Amino acid sequence: MGVISLILYGVVLLTSLPVGYFLAWLCKDEIIYRKWMFVIFYAFVAGFIWAFILLDNLPVLLCFAYMTIVTAVSIFKGKDKKFLKE
């Protein structure tokens, strides 16, 4: 695997942070009920671990990593009361 492809994978994973903030901003009323967000988060973490250990498929691993980061950002921004009042 080349250095350029690793840099591109890192850039793609970094784009999950603004996407998570944007989804948290769009779905402020759903984030208040975080019970299901935690279920989704743990499902993505389990999928990430499954893809890392059992599969040798990098696109599936990156997909689970991306969705895990997006969901984590949404959950943690949901705890910020100033963010939810805007």
Descriptive overview:
- The chain has helices at 3-14, 16-26, 28-31, 35-53, 58-78, 81-85.
- It is mainly α and 86 residues long.
- Helix 2 (16-26) crosses helix 5 and helix 4 packs antiparallel against helix 5.
Radius of gyration: 14 Å
What share of the residues lie within helices? over 70%
Straight-line distance between termini: 44 Å
Q: Number of folding domains?
A: 1
Average pLDDT number: 79
Tally the beta strands. 0
Structural classification: mainly alpha
Which H/E pattern describes the elements? HHHHHH
Strand content: under 5%
Tell me about the largest β-sheet.
Answer: none
Number of helices: 6
Low-confidence sequence ranges = none
Q: Give the overall silhouette.
A: flat
List the main descriptive attributes of the protein structure presented here.
84% helix; 86 residues; flat
SSE layout and pairing:
Layout: H1 3-14, H2 16-26, H3 28-31, H4 35-53, H5 58-78, H6 81-85
Helix pairs in contact: 2-5, 4-5
Describe, in short, the structure shown.
The protein has 86 residues and is an all-alpha fold.
